[in-house]
Design brief:
Length: 201
């Protein structure tokens, strides 16, 4: 099913008794794909002629449902053996955010995901991260390991020098309390980067 046909079906719930094909095609054309359209900021969506509150609400319901579905595939499962599902979830949750977010996935001794939490939100190219707070939260949750995740709104997932230095600080603080840092993932629209795969961790 082409993106615009799927979008038509979604829009039909918000705009009844009207042909939704023109608006569906406009949304796909403007944002590039179905997934980009449903993840677009509310203000940007409202700029499109024909998009009102009911359309925005419908698109955001679909976005929330897809994120919950992705999260369900990784929660309470071994993170390291569900790596692709974990990457899909992180991409759905963060790749299209207009601001940097720093998220921590907390794992138990069997590497099962206990929970994931957004530790901080920042600007388009920076977010403050506090190693002490991450380690403190891991201890509160009884986590034995963590996976660090943050996004680059620019789309390029290449780690910056600051990313590398910050990761080393967190790893050192965690190691002192026997908490493993399995990886640090940088999520971008064009893909992801793994510190472990790059030999940076």
């Amino acid at each position: 099913m082409p993106d615009y046909e799927l979008m038509e079906l979604v829009l039909f719930a918000a705009i009844q008794r009207r042909d939704t094909k023109p608006l569906a095609k406009k949304l796909i054309e403007t944002f590039g794909s179905f997934s980009e359209a449903i993840a677009a900021p509310r203000a940007r969506l409202m700029e499109i002629d024909g998009v009102g509150k009911s359309v925005v609400i419908q698109l955001k319901i679909v976005e929330a449902a897809s994120l919950r579905l992705s999260r369900g595939k990784v929660l309470n499962r071994p993170a390291l053996s569900s790596w692709n599902a974990l990457l899909d979830y992180c991409t759905a949750a963060m790749a299209r955010s207009p601001r940097e977010e720093f998220r921590v996935l907390f794992l138990d001794r069997k590497n099962i995901l206990i929970t994931d939490e957004v530790q901080s939100k920042g600007t388009i190219d920076h977010t403050a991260v506090y190693p002490r707070e991450i380690v403190k939260r891991a201890l509160e949750l009884g986590a034995a390991a963590v996976i660090l995740v943050h996004n680059h709104p620019s789309g390029d997932p290449t780690p910056s020098r600051q990313d590398i230095e910050m990761t080393r600080e967190i790893a050192a603080a965690a190691k002192a309390l026997n908490i493993a840092v399995h990886d640090h993932l940088v999520i971008g629209r064009s893909g992801h980067a793994s510190f472990k795969s790059l030999g940076l961790l």
